[in-house]
Amino acid sequence: MQSIELNDGSRVPALGLGTWKSAPGEVGAAVREAIRQGYRHIDCAPIYGNEREVGAAVADAIAAGEVTRDELWLTSKLWCDRHAKKDVVPALRETLSDLGVDRIDLFLVHWPVALKRGKQMPKSPKDFIPFEKLPLEETWKGMEDAVDAGLARCIGVSNVSAKKLRALHSVARVKPAMNQVELHPYLAQGDLRAACRELGVAVTAYSPLGSADRPDVLRAADEPRLLDDPVVAAVAEEADATPAQVLIAWSLAHGNVVIPKSVNAGRLAQNLAAADVALSAEQLARVDALDLARRYVTGEFWTPPGSPYTQANLWDE
Ligand code: A2P
Fold it and tell me: Model pTM?
């Protein structure tokens, strides 16, 4: 398995398993099967509502002698209602307890959006805390506390623009190791990837297959289906691979960590085998040319009328 070196010298397996949208009741079996097949990196978050089941599957795999804790890379995230510095370590301790581990490999600030304590999702504009009142830099001090306490090996961010990342990087004592963002051929994130490279921040590509299983409220009626793209299909045919494998191989070839989600044993195996799919420079260039700057996960749940967060100030575009 290829790995990517982070700014502290740690190496993260470049292909991991996504668990967003993996339902309780099925995520445990998926994680268990993934580890059996050779996955060594699981991407989690408390907001996915399934960390306890993920933790039980990890414990089961370790008990069965299939993997050791040290061989597994576990990532989790800080939810938006825990952005106050003092709330970060307690939130991480809850995740550690749910996952059944003493320490996490990578802990990310899930969104550059702050909510009042106890609000999982905003129901009214009053549920938000404006970014200026509780900026990322403040939350970051709590993230650094998590490293100091030995509870997180590395820390990073998610859904963060180049502008916010630069501002954070310039003041951080422990520099962010990772920015996890939506990234696939329709949203290739060229500028953001360049900024991350310059700052020594690795990039994880989420929704690499286009996340077609998103709930309807998070979908646009006219959205193009990445897995059905004809260019991806043609490259897949040439490479004797599947469209999903082309999408994963494309991301790996660009040096990203990539975390496709599946709860199906056959598709888990297919996705893992994408690490062995080699695309030529010409094939990569054809897939590169698909960029539409098209976001599937627009974060519009953060930007309803009256919210201090807007599409403009969320993405800085
Ligand atoms: P399933 O879990 O039933 O396999 P993303 O990683 O972009 O969020 O995409 C996840 C979606 O893609 C899920 O609907 C998942 O379904 C599906 N998926 C995962 N792997 C494959 C694959 N190899 N081929 C087709 N669809 C896939």
Answer: 0.98
